Structure formats: structure tokens, C-alpha cells
Amino acid sequence: MERWRLILDGKHGGARNMAVDEAMLAVFGSGGTLRPTLRLYGWEEPTLSIGYLQRTSDFEAAALPLVRRITGGRAVLHHREVTYAVVAGAKSGPLAGGISAAYEAVSRALVEALRGLGVDARWARPQRGGTVVPRACFHAPNRFEVLARGRKIAGSAQRRSGAVFLQHGSILVSMERDLNERVFGAALLEKMTSVEDETGAGDEEALREGLVEAFARTLSVDFQEAGLTEDERELASALEASRYSTREWNLGGDAAPKEALINYPEGTFL
């Protein structure tokens, strides 16, 4: 049974959360950490995260903290949720294979954790032929994302770098309806749901515990709780300051200044 690191993190701002996820990917890819990682964390205030290539003009009127991810996908309003991040090998271990294989394996764990809380969770089977790309992640499911009663309850995004990858995602514990309607419009509320909506209880700690158990079972891994390494902490602090706290990165995406880029042994990671 493969041993993984488990990081049970607290609630942070958007810049810190995204910096830590990227730092874990970079250090693992360079051989600085030997074990794959599952990190569970939260958000200290309502925050919009947007996909790597997404336009910020759609959200200028939201008046909320905003951070750009290094992963793709669409915008997510984070707050009352449990967020997971998996950093693992793409060519060996339980998540080896292509993008879809990793999504399927991770979604299996998410579905099992949610079912353990009484949510009738299942994989999405999106319809073919859609042409409109929505602004919000929770507006439409991708393959292997997780639904309850046909509504999206979890959304994920992935970034690959050589032989390693990062996948992170949000599992909604409860919905902030007014905020979501203000940012994305009322139609979104009919397409998303939360643990609280499905079960009558929104217990973040119970969801965290269920996720740890489900990942261990479905991936056949043994977790050992630990924190970030010194290299990860230093890199996360540098990324938080030079990238994720800057207007150039968050509002401009790949127009970020050169000094915000960090070089790794296998090249420049964006």
C-alpha cells in the first residue's frame, strides 16, 4: 500500500491557498518531496477563483477578492466548502494515466465521501452538442464531476507538469445564494447544490473525515499527517507575494511580469 502525505490545513486567503497548491506541485515535480499529497483546506472569506485563461472582465462588478488559478476551468465562488488538492504522479501510482483517468479516480473518492454523509452523489454524464461556455464552474458539469439530484455539488480542475499533476476542487458544504446570484445570476442556483441542501446538515469536519477515509479506501493508500516542507513553505511565500497577490497575475493571466515566474529544473512552470 502506497503511503501518502495528508495535510489538514486551515482557512486562508485566496493568494495563500493557490500559492501552496502550486508550491506542492513544483517541489514534488523536482523531487523535493517523495510522497504524493492530499491537502484539505478552506477559505477565510468569500473569494472568486478564476481559470488560468478566463477573462476577469466578467467579474469586475462582483466587489470580491479574486485570484487566478494555474488550473483551467471556470470561476468558482469559494467560502462554505471543503477544498481538496491532490498532487501525485501521472505515470506511476494509483492516479497514473491520462487526465480522464485521474478525474475518474478522484471523483470515485468524492462520490464515496458524499454518499457516506447521506448525499445521493453520482458521476456526471454531460450532454453532447453544447456550444456556450458558461462563466461559472458550477453552471455545467464536465465528465466525471459529481452531481446530486442532477445538480453539481463538486467541481475540479487540473494542471499537469511533466510526470506530475495537481488536481484541486471544491465540495460545497452550504450555498451562499445571494452572493452566487449577484456574481453569476439566478439561473446558476438551479444547477448547483450543497451537502446542507441534500442532507439538512452542513458539517465541514464530517466531510473532511469522510474525504480522508474515502481517498484511502478508493486509492488503496495509507495517509500520514504532516505539514509542508521547508522548501514548500519558502516557495509558497514567494509565489504568494510575487504572483498571487499581484494585479498583473490575477487580472492579466499570462501577462504576469517576468519576475513573477519561478524556474524549476525542468523549465519554467506557469
- Uncertain runs: 129-133, 135-140, 254-270
What is the CA–CA distance across the termini? 33 Å
Number of strands: 13
Average of the residue pLDDT scores = 87
CATH topology: BirA Bifunctional Protein, domain 2
Beta-strand content bin: 25-35%
Instruction: Assign the CATH class.
Output: Alpha Beta
H/E element order: EHEEEEEHEEEEHHHEHHEE
**Number of DSSP helices?**
7
| Name given to the CATH homologous superfamily | Bira Bifunctional Protein, Domain 2
How many domain modules? 1
Shape: globular
Taking Cα atoms only, what radius of gyration do you get, to the nearest Å? 17 Å
Q: What's the architecture, going by CATH?
A: 2-Layer Sandwich
Structural class: alpha+beta
Short description:
This protein has 270 residues and is α+β, with helices and mostly antiparallel strands.
Protein described:
The chain is an alpha+beta fold. It has one domain: Bira Bifunctional Protein, Domain 2 (BirA Bifunctional Protein, domain 2, 2-Layer Sandwich), CATH 3.30.930.10. Helix content is 31%, strand content 27%. The protein has 7 helices and 13 strands. It has helices at 14-29, 99-116, 177-184, 195-199, 204-219, 230-244, 247-252, and strands at 2-12, 37-43, 47-50, 66-68, 76-78, 81-89, 121-123, 146-148, 151-161, 164-172, 221-225, 262-264, 267-269. The strands form 3 sheets. The protein has an 8-stranded mixed β-sheet with strand order 7-8-9-10-6-2-1-11, sandwiched between helices. Strands 4-3-5 form a 3-stranded mixed β-sheet, sandwiched between helices. It has a two-stranded antiparallel ribbon with strand order 12-13. α1 (14-29) crosses α6 (230-244) and α2 (99-116) packs across α5 (204-219). It is globular. Mean pLDDT is 87; it is low at 129-133, 135-140 and 254-270.
